[in-house]
Amino acid sequence: MPATGQTREGLIVHAWIMVIALSWLSVAAAMGTDITIRKTSAGKASRNLYGVNLWRAFDPEVAESPAYQTNLAAMGVTVVRFHNAGMAKWIDVPNRAWDTNAVGRVMTALAHRFPVKMVTISGPPPWMDEDGDRRLDKSRVADYAAWCADLVGHVNNVCRAGVQWWEVLNEAELRGYDKRGDGEVLADIFRACSKAMRARDPSIRVGGNAWSWGMPAQAVEFLEEAGKGIAFYSYHWYATGDPGARVGDIYGKAVSADIAKVRKSLASRRLALPIWIDEWNMFYDWKSDAARHLMVSGRSAVYDALFLKSAAESGGADYLVAWNDADNTYGKMSTGYEFFSGAFVFMLYNRLFDGTILTTSSSDVAVVPFAVKGADGAVSVSLVNRSESPREASISSAVPLPRELTRYLIGADGIATNMIAGGAAIELPAESVTVITTKSARASGVSRP
After folding, report:
1. Phi-psi region of 337 (alpha: psi -120 to 50; beta: other; left: phi over 0)
2. Which of 3.90.550.10, 3.30.565.10, 3.20.20.80, 2.30.30.520 would CATH assign to domain 46-354?
3. Residue 200, CB-side half-sphere exposure with 13 Å CA sphere
4. Which 3 state secondary structure label does DSSP give 240?
5. CA distance 361 to 369
6. How far apart, in Å, are the Cα atoms of 138 and each of 132, 134, 191?
7. Which residue of 71, 100, 360, 442 could cross-link 369, Cys pair, CB 3.0 to 4.6 Å?
8. What is the DSSP letter of 387?
9. Contacts of residue 114, Cβ cutoff 8 Å, sequence gap at least 6
């Protein structure tokens, strides 16, 4: 019912005024974003930040697949981590030995393709945990150290794979080592393993402990005991485990990752160590994304671009390795090795975002810029629209931009490329990643696999 004294005609006029007002707000939202690029440096970005976990590659048949190899190469990845929690394809359980044939096939197929490589030995094999408490039996520490050393010997001395970085446990605080004092136990295991492994190859760097987040209590204990002996500090970062988490809240968690906290904690112990975030994505439990499949949707590209910008500009992380290479929940590729949207972010960033980070600002918090000037002088700008509404951006740059620019648009349906005039307004679809570069499409080497 209309309010007292309000006619039907008055309601109609009022409704039209509201429609016009809302339409104007929508147009204003689409037109009003000003992006500023300054000459001042905000640090360095490198391809060490755009790495991927090779989870599927533990299977020799996957590692040897031409389609897998081709499309992984198309992402331009230079940093990889060989990690699979069970390591099943690499272990000959009946003979209580490494399956050296399987390991050799994987390393022959892939190791030469990546200049920076890590192998994670996720934990003791079943026969070293006879009581089933998910902890290495106390009497088997030396055996486990020899076990880890045997893999180093085969990978680097026999296969000549040149794997420089090694972890001896993965998320141990979630797998039996969850009590006070367990960090000290893990430190003892680490020291034994590191000594045995480096006896096989003194050039390797052994670190850890692939913690489930930045600084759990066990990590603090571990650092107190073994900090001077570790070659790097590694941990994981997932935004949430809540299957109902709002997408905007997930995007918001892409800008923390505990990097500053971890760096401060290491510095307080006078440890100037490389930091690896060697797993990261939206959900730490794959079941949490079983209904919405966000991590293989267009929204994964938005999250990935936000995370990579934040980590790069923080200056605190030395290596980032996303989870993972190819599956239908977390993967940058599908099980058929086709690109999901996030893979295009890695493809573009590996080719275009290696160099000096330029200081940027945006008049709209929903539009997040990231600009890098390469060694060749080329400038590339990523514009992430994290809003559910389209935007239109204009770039004002202290670094001269040419009259013609290459534009890449990453959305739910893949990637589109076209040329735009320098200074032209740039349309930013809802929840999308747009990359503008002064390189030509051919020079950038970017194409859809």
Report:
1. left
2. 3.20.20.80
3. 25
4. strand
5. 7
6. 13, 12, 14
7. 360
8. S
9. 77, 78, 79, 80
> What share of the chain in percent tops pLDDT 90?
85
Confidence of residue 4 (pLDDT cuts 50, 70, 90): very low
For residue 28, name the pLDDT band (cuts at 50, 70, 90).
Answer: very low
Domain spans, the chain: 32-43+356-444, 46-354
pLDDT at site 248: 95
For strands 391-397 and 33-45, give the pairing.
parallel
Candidate CATH numbers 3.40.50.11270, 2.60.40.1180, 2.40.50.140, 2.60.40.1610; the one for domain 32-43+356-444: 2.60.40.1180
| pLDDT grade for 445, boundaries at 50, 70 and 90 | low
Mean pLDDT of 287-291: 96
If you average pLDDT over residues 17-34, what whole number do you get?
47
Q: What is the mean pLDDT of residues 112-140?
A: 95
The DSSP line for 81-117 is: EE--TT-GGGEETTTTEE-HHHHHHHHHHHGGG-SEE
